[in-house]
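User: Predict the structure for this protein chain, please.
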Amino acid sequence: MRLLYVIDSLDQGGAEQSLVDLAPHLANEGVDLTIAVLRPGGMLEARARSAKAKIVHVQPTDRRRQRVERLQDVIDELRPELVHTTLFEADIAGRLAATRRSVPVVSSVVNLAYTSDHRRAPGLKPHRVVLAQVADIGTARLVRRFHTNAASLVTPMSRRLLVPRRRFEVIPRGRDDEVLGTRSERRRADTRFSLELDDHVPVVLAAARHEYQKGLDVLLDATALIRRSHPNVMVLLAGRDGNRTAALRYQATRLGLDGNVRFIGARDDVPDLLVAADVFVLPSRWEGLPGAVIEAIALETPVVATDLPGVREVLGSELLRGTVVPIGDAQALARRISATVEDPAAAASWTTAARARFLRRFTTRRIASEMVDFYARALDTSA
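Assistant: Here is the predicted structure, written as structure tokens:
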């Protein structure tokens, strides 16, 4: 199967990481994969190439019409049997280009979008969110099937895109267990040494871009509370800059957290950071299926997360107890992080069950097989 996968970028992010992890396993399933990148130069491009994927750069442009035209040229050259789009700009341009070249197109819905929270997010203009939804709805009718990584996204997003539920299929994100590796004391010690952190320092890790959605401001408020009982706590914020970077740095300084919080930027060693951490925190206000939580359970890192449907899908009922807190509640977040740090025996029991759940449900080998079946159904015109 010749597949053209169109994505906004290969920067560090959940959708991007999932694609790169999936690439070699799709190749093993007989998929000839080419990735068309709208914004070239992402830190995951080298890994994608080493994973048997070909990379095509759609030359940078802010004009959507030019993106569509250039993607049409790519389709003319590669003659894919199917086009798969992920993330907003790739969705709009990829759907239009594929349809104009009479190639069937599928799209992934990987985030909860067009909510009231989304429209109120600092840095976003409400009318632009509405215009984006209109463009999404207008091109969604061109899509043969939708893939979503979380069952909780089907009902709200089918309504917001005016697409029947029957056109959605749920296949979760996966992670490559061989790429992630396993937890060991040596790996933990080496990573902490590289970060100049002693073993007795409680380390809290969050991995997210600096956007309102990700709730990092709530984590900073919680850190100020945690510091009262754990004055040497260290919070590592791994993730690329975004609309809230300046505000987050100002908040950390205002709360007197400059000695307890490190902004360490986009990283290609998040698995190592997870092994070094005592707790992984996902304080998001909304999410699809959080790939970072999948990585955390794979590497047996205790998780504290906001109570989101996608988080519940990753953890399952057996891992929820003592893990989730209400959205936006800094006090509850602080209490749960502190309790996790203070009870390593309970955390160890949790992480053993978490690793088993990951191997049972979220490995890329399993997900690749499910995706190939999804592609086959999309190409079956009798279905």
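The longest helix spans residues 344-361.
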